[in-house]
TrEMBL record:
Organism encoding this protein: Clostridium fessum
Record-listed Zn(2+) binding positions: C128, C131, C149, C151
Main subcellular location of this protein, as a coarse class: cytoplasm
Name of the protein described by the UniProt record: NAD-dependent protein deacetylase
Compartment(s): Cytoplasm
Length: 240
């Protein structure tokens, strides 16, 4: 029995599937992983991405933060790919109960998923740090330099930066779903970013599936490892 057949069979047998995904789910929608520094990057920025995307850098050098953020983190024209669509379909069928994502692009919701737990927040939500007013992505794209509210306050994206803590409620809801899961599918992540990667230790079932193009630190723990495109694997398994 091939890997996709096994995956299909397990999906059919399961009633509480949880999906945990990382940057690889979005790269298939042409959103590059900001960690994969391209050749231009070194000429363009004086700091590594992990430094620029830290809370202290955002406070210290907001202009440089926003220059990088606009260039490397915002992709308003990106469309959901087969992985996003497959997960939304599984949720509509009542099989998938939650998508837990490290991505900040909102593509799971754009594909129709309802229960999406965003560990690292979303570029679609922005708030004034002074008065709390909400701004959408379109508002941010229209502004130049450091985005400012009408009240004069700086607008900050609802994205978890390095040095900032994850939202406890999101973590607790994620753990609750993973504990109840009879199947956990992990895709498009190398499972190195903590605390997010530690969430999978709460899974106690026997259908742990890892779908990633390259090896991960947890391959030995998985019940099924598929080294291929997540869009292709999930799209073929679910039929989208």
């Amino acid at each position: 029995m091939g890997e996709t057949d096994t995956l299909k069979k397990w999906i059919n047998e399961s009633n509480y599937i949880v999906f945990f995904g990382g940057a690889g789910v979005s790269t298939e929608s042409n959103i590059p992983d900001f960690r994969s520094t391209d050749g231009l990057y070194h000429q363009e920025y004086d700091y590594p991405p992990e430094t620029i995307l830290s809370h202290s850098f955002y406070i210290r050098k907001p202009e440089e933060f926003y220059r990088f953020y606009r260039n490397k983190m915002l992709f308003p024209n990106a469309k959901p790919n087969r992985a996003h669509l497959a997960l939304a379909k599984l949720e509509q069928e009542g099989k998938l109960k939650a998508v837990i994502t490290q991505n900040i692009d909102g593509l799971h919701q754009a594909a129709g998923s309802k229960e999406v737990l965003e560990l690292h927040g979303s570029v679609l939500r922005n708030h004034c740090t002074r008065c709390g007013r909400f701004y959408g992505l379109d508002d941010i794209l229209k502004m130049k330099g450091v985005p400012k509210c009408g009240c004069g306050g700086v607008i900050k994206p609802d994205v978890v930066l390095y040095e900032e803590g994850l939202d406890n409620e999101v973590i607790e809801r994620s753990i609750a779903h993973i504990r109840k899961a009879d199947m956990l599918i992990i895709g498009g992540t190398s499972l190195v970013v903590y605390p997010a990667a530690g969430l999978i230790d709460y899974y106690h079932g026997n259908k742990l599936v890892l779908i990633n193009k390259s090896a991960t630190s947890r391959d030995g723990q998985a019940d099924l490892v598929i080294s291929d495109s997540i869009g292709k694997v999930l799209g073929d398994a679910v039929g989208v």
